[in-house]
Amino acid sequence: MGEHILSWMTFFPLIGAAVIACLPSGRKQVIRTVAAVAAAVPLLLSVQLFMNFDRASGALQFVEHYTWIKSFNIEYFMAVDGLSMPMMMLTALLSFLCIFASWGIEKSLKGYFAMFLLLETGMFGVFCALDFFLFYVFWEVMLLPMYFLIGIWGGPRREYAAIKFFLYTLAGSVLMLLAMIAFYLNVADPVTGGHTFNMVHMFDQNNHSAWLQTTNIRHMLWLALFIGFAIKVPVFPFHTWLPDAHVEAPTAVSVILAGVLLKMGTYGILRISYPMLPDQAMWFRYALATLGAINILYGAYCAMAQKDMKKLVAYSSVSHMGYVLLGMAAMNSAGINGAVLQMFNHGTITAMMFLCVGVVYDRAHTREINAFGGLGMQMPRYFSFFSFALFAALGLPGLSGFVSEAMIFIGAFPAFRTITIISALGIIIGAAYVLWMLQRVFLGPKNDKWDNLPDINAREMFTLVPIGILVLLLGVFPMPVLDLMKVTLNNLIKVVAG
Amino acid sequence: MELLHVKIPSWSDLQYWLPEAVLCVTFLLGLLGDIMSRGRRPVVAFAISVVGLLAAGALAIADINAVAPAGGRAIMGDLMVVDGMAIFFRLLFIFAGLATVLFAWTSEEIMGRRRENKGEFFVLTTLMTVAMMVMAEARDMLMLYLSMEGVGLTSYVMAGYMRTSLRSTEASIKYVIFGSVSSAIMLYGLSLLYGMTGSLQFSGIRDVLLGGGAEPFGLLVAVVLILAGMSYKIAAVPFHFWCPDVYEGAPTPVAALFSVGPKAAGFALMIRFFYSTFAAGTNIAASDALIKTINWPLLVSVISAVTMTYGNLVALRQTNVKRMLAYSSIAHVGYLLMGFVLLSEMGLASILFYLLVYTLMNLGAFFFVVAVNNHLKSEQLEDYKGLGYRMPWAGVMMVVFLGSLTGVPPFAGFVGKLYLFMAVMDRQWFWLVIIAGLNSVISLYYYFRVAKVMWLSRPDEGHDSPLRLTWLQYTVLACLAVPTLALGLYFGAFKDLADAGIRTMAGG
Predict the structure, then answer these.
(1) CA spacing 20 to 30 A to B102: which of A133, A422, B192, B382?
(2) What whole-number distance in Å separates Cα of residue B491 and Cα of residue A70?
(3) pLDDT of amino acid B280
(4) How far apart are alpha carbons B14 and B132 in whole angstroms?
(5) Which helix H or strand E contains A63, and what residues bound it?
(6) Nearest-10 Cα torsion for B340, B343, B347, B349
(7) Which of A260, A273, A264 has its CA nearest to residue A180?
(8) Which residue, B64, B7, B72, is CA-closest to B505?
(9) Are B135 and B127 in contact (CB under 8 A)?
(10) pLDDT score at B508
């Protein structure tokens, strides 16, 4: 496995999905076990990746580079660098834990786990593909399983939410596709001179044709790519699919959606838009920072108005992704490192929050905030986990969210003073909605209806504890993740900001 | 005049025309066999057709490298040509014909309860396959017209195959009327062109046109008339009106064949005719000027944009799956026409590749409807509720076809669209690509409405018994679904085949 570690990580879940598809649907325990193994192997491999990754080098590592389709010059080109490493780790961890968060699913178990593992393959693929075509295929491969995961195993309005998610994302992908073709036709392979999908060639501005160096064309391409990625993040005003998808999706799918899929948008901007069109990144950065501020404030205000816990968490994701955008726009070391760290931290924190919401929903079959009250006495252990997650979300010092948000603000302040000051209000509103929800659900008089709610069980704790440890650890000592990415990201800043 | 010295076909030409010859013999043998068994044993005609198609397929495959000399080989008194493109379409048509014959055997619509007098269906399919192959080989306006009428006549009969069904008969009559009117229009255009150039051969026409021998307005009229006739064949807006009614009325296996066979043949004919007469040849400047005289790119791109948008928008509102697929096939004609805008080699090759992909996925979707119809006797979308849970494997394959029709990776439909988009963007026709992109998003909604009804809702109580397909149905569906997936992931060889088809296309 050593040589093709990225391929193994990417395709092992797919093998698992194929095995599950062939098992009889009655053997539920076997199916669950196969799914757990299929997700555990990539997790172990990701540990190996973590150990062997050369942190001092900004180069691509664990490279696998083969010709795939010769006549289009498409390559099977997989590699990781400091930008993709944290995302790979996050994906491996969350996918593995989500298998256990899905343990209780009864309906069409076989289909569920097959789809879930297929989704995992797509996620890994996106984070290590360095051929634009390959990237696009992985990016789109996730749509089908996601559609069915929301649509079959979701809540009451699942059909609407599933197709809305699909339509929005596909609309964005089509724009990305057009930009991809434009690049393909206008970037010359330095060796052969032919068209190429190789991203590394696309990064090198010397390979761009004269047409591709026209300012208007570059504006258009930037916007096409940006909208494609913005829908995934989601950036206001493209965010409306997100609350619907989250509310209807089953818990584990929400975790993956918020924890990994949203990051693909910002990952795409950093991986593709920034190095391919660095001048446009500079041109757009005020707009990007403004959009980030809107996301932060608008998401936080919307979260405050929500009556449904899951919708609240969904809007908090919109707000937290705004910080990522703000940090990315800053174009300096603190800002961009903070942004990528925030991508990782938001993945873990929001996963905890969704898992916690799932716990109470499984028991009470409602997520109405006002239906609860005084749950703190009824479910003390659950109370401590949920409040831990919520405090992390509001950026309590000592927990990981604080570190990344602080870095983002440190980076953004010198770049955009006013926008940053306005954005900082988001922290206060964030504290408001988080604490207000905490108060309404866990404190105050107990609602007698919930006298029989059992506290959190061992399986649920198993999904929460590893993430909790990570959140605490990175809050005190963020270097393990920062070390991974710093060289790569500083190189990126050099490319973009000169 | 050339008519005075028509070349006499030589018997030796037959060696390059073996697949077609085999199918002609198959047709006659099948007919004979059906009569001998007095219509009581359709299996005789079925077996003969299957064997004949397989043999023709084998010969066509063996010919891939053997008979494609540079520039192709004109045969049958220069009326037809066998070149890379002809070979490509041969394979496509034989595959479509074979799949239709096999699946029709399991269709209750075609075979009825008593399975009597059904043999002729298979024989007709064979005949239609030959006629389509000739359409792709014609290099002379006479042959062009004859082959189109040959396909037309067999289609009319097949559309009305369910003699006792009012819908089917109506479909057939509509087809005849539309067909003859548009043939007449096209014939008028052809005769104008003949009058202007004095030649029936595509190459002869080209030489006169490139020499500047045609009056621009007259040429425009002739081209528009010919394009109208061909648009009818491929069902492009505004000549599409027959298409949904005929597909809905005709037996579903026939509709399946109609949606791919005659359409692909129409495209083959268009490619050869317009490419040979306008674009082929060494005098690029003259041909560019010629294309500009008639404003070809704008003409075709408008037809393309309108066709895909219309097909998709109307498909959104359909409740009958078969009718929805009919409109979707109109939309796909719109996509295909994108490759035709520039008459560039890349564009034409992308049409060929897309036709291959389209044949696989569209036949698959239609055959799924056939299989369902056998059990439910319905094509209404609401009856498909929870179908995925009643026939899981077939349901999964249907999702593959639907995903591919939408153009989502990793399915072949995506690669087809990618190639078409590339061909257009290569010459920077952005507005057309953007419209096509938006159309793909619209199409997602109605394709996945089928997937939604099948998988996202559970079957109703009492209607949840598992539905069984025959092994033949599974085999044919798998033979369509597996390549639909595989071609999305590894398409190099077939892309090369399509490219070679265009590259070695004889210049007339």
Answers:
(1) B382
(2) 10
(3) 63
(4) 18
(5) strand A61-69
(6) 100
(7) A273
(8) B72
(9) no
(10) 43
Amino acid at A99: I
User: Is the CB of residue A126 less than 8 Å away from at least one CB of chain B?
Assistant: no
Q: Which of B452, B453, B502, B503 to mutate to test the interface with A (most CBs of A within 10 A)?
A: B452
Name every residue whose Cβ is closer than 8 Å to that of residue A316 and which is 6 or more positions away in sequence: A299, A300, A303, A350, A353, A393, A430, A433, A434
Three-class SS state of A64: strand
Least confident stretch, A373-387, B46-60, B350-364: A373-387
> Torsions phi, psi of A361, nearest 5?
-65, -40
Choose between A412 and B111: higher pLDDT.
Answer: A412
Name residue B201's beta-bridge partners.
B140
Question: Distance of alpha carbon B36 from its chain centroid, rounded?
Answer: 33
Nearest to B301 by CA among B406, B416, B435, B415: B435
In 3D, which of B332, B335, B275 has the Cα closest to residue B84? Answer: B275
Buried b (16+ CB within 10 A) or exposed e, A375-399: bbebbeebbebbbbbbbbbbbbeeb
Range of the domain at A396: 291-498
pLDDT recorded at residue A292: 94
Q: pLDDT per residue over B392-422, tens digit each?
A: 889 999 999 999 999 998 899 999 999 999 9
User: In sequence order, which residues have a C-beta less than 8 Å from that of residue A493 and are 6 or more positions away?
Assistant: A331, A332, A333, A336
Look up residue B247 and give its two tokens.
């597909």
What DSSP line would sit under A420-483, residue for residue? HHHHHHHHHHHHHHHHHHHHHHHSSSPPGGGTTPPPP-HHHHHHHHHHHHHHHHHHH--HHHHH
Residue B496 forms contact with A (CB below 8 Å)? yes
Give me the pLDDT at residue B388, please: 87
Number of domains chain A contains: 1
pLDDT tens column, A213-251: 889 999 999 999 999 999 998 898 898 999 999 989 998
Sign of CA dihedral A461, A48, A490, A480: positive
Range name among A73-82, A228-237, B67-76, B258-267 with the lowest pLDDT average:
B67-76
Cα angle: A431, vertex A434, A436; to 5 degrees: 100
* Within a domain: A318: yes
Distances (CA, A) of B497 to A33, A124, A403, B88, B341: 45, 33, 57, 7, 21
Give the residue ranges of chain A where pLDDT is below 50. Answer: none
pLDDT in tens, B178-225: 999 989 999 999 999 998 888 888 888 888 887 777 788 888 888 899
Domain limits of chain B? 15-503
Nearest CA in chain A to B406: A170
Place of tokens 């069984």: B468
Nearest CA-CA partner of B42 in B104, B94, B98:
B104
Most confident of B26-40, B200-214, B279-293: B26-40
What is the pLDDT at residue B506? 55
Q: Report pLDDT digits (tens) over A244-261.
A: 999 899 989 999 999 999
Q: Which residue of B has its CA nearest to A137?
A: B409
**Nearest chain B CA: its distance from A135 CA (Å):** 11
CB–CB contact B434 A166 (8 Å):
no
C-beta atoms of A177 and B445 within 8 A: no
ipTM of the complex: 0.91
Q: Do B425 and A151 touch (CB under 8 A)?
A: no
Helix axes B412-425, B321-338, angle to 10 degrees: 30
| Interchain contact, B408 vs A144, CB within 8 Å | yes
Q: Mutating which of A73, A107, A147 best tests the B interface, going by the most B Cβ atoms within 10 A?
A: A147
* pLDDT at residue B423 greater than cutoff 50: yes
* Residue type at position B432: L
Does residue A206 fall inside a structural domain? no
User: Is there a domain that residue A201 lies in?
Assistant: no
- Choose among A49, A50, A51, A42: nearest CA to A14: A42
- Give chain A positions within 8 Å (CB) of B437: 174-175, 177-178
